[in-house]
Amino acid sequence: MSSPKEKICLLSCSVLKRELQQLVKEGKLDAELVFVSKNFHVDYAALESNVRKILEHTKKRFKGKIVLVYGDLCLGQEGEMKKIAQEYGVAKIDAVNCIDCQMGGKGRYLEADPNHNLMFMGPGMIEFFADMKENLKRQGMDDAAFAGMFGGIKGIVLLDTCGDADRCKEALAKSGMNLEVLETRCVGAEGVLAVVMNAINNASRIK
To answer: What is residue 12's DSSP assignment?
Structure first.
């Protein structure tokens, strides 16, 4: 008799919430989902503290395998997120950041933007910058100063992961970033699925 399939919990940045929830709803992904707020990304210390807190809580209550759905650079340039995964004995996706994850991981994001002058934006990142703008406005930053933060960017490449490109374009037009959408790529959630499934397979090898 074969053993029952091991349960999987994905601990993910909420930037990927819509894609992961859609994959579960479509029956393409069988996993419990736990999210850490994407807004912690503005503060590495707060992000690390909350990732650790939720990892510790999840490990106590969840008896299956845990996969950390964060990119290599989400906590700094020195592999800090990989070290946390190793410290807690959990698997981690093979991706540079959340955008890389949406593109299928393994550094595809770096290949797509070698000059670092484009902004690749999926639904979660659009929400992230909208929240950031509101927070900065409360701190006294005006619209011109906010738009100036993106002065070196040539434009936006929209990643349509959930089939709502028009809604995303409307949100970008209201974002105050003053950047043109140069291209829309209808990538779907398959890139996220591929990266996550690869990490789930790796998780089965972790004792």
So the answer is: E
